[in-house]
Amino acid sequence: MNGGKPAAFDSVAAFFAQALAIEVEAAERYTLLADQMEVHNNKEIAAIFLKMAAIESEHRREIVRRAGDTLPTGIPADVSWTNPDGPEAIAFEDVHYLMTPRQALLLARFNEERAARYFESIAASATDPRISAFAAEMATDERLHVSWVDQWLETFAADELDRADDPDPPVYSE
Ligand code: ZN
Hints:
This protein is mostly helical. The protein has one domain (about 10-160): Ferritin (Up-down Bundle). It has helices spanning about 10-40, 45-65, 100-125, 130-155, 160. The structure holds zinc ion.
């Protein structure tokens, strides 16, 4: 597929492509955040992020299932997790490895909120009632994720969240 004619795909296909991109991105980012928390020896929060990666992967499979033949390949859907401080995508290679659990949770919260808003806007505006209903389901799930993150931010002690354990600091030799 090339030439990039926007009219070449309908809004249903575009919705599924975008929804899929959101969930693929979320699953990948949670997996990376879990790795980051492992670096901090914060196994509890690493486990939370791994669970979230699994949940978003389940969303991904559900979208593929629902999209069926509607999901064409080659639709240039793209989404990147962004930083609360700015609209630009986060290059995870550039994320400082000393990101604290709190920073990681706030990052997750920001992007869960963003996903929820996307699905809410589709639910409100889609002309296809099936898309509207499915988007509403997805929005409900993503809203729930936002509230989970809020709970984790409350549940974990402040020192646990703000500590950036660095058991093996790198040596800057030059
Ligand atoms: Zn989510």
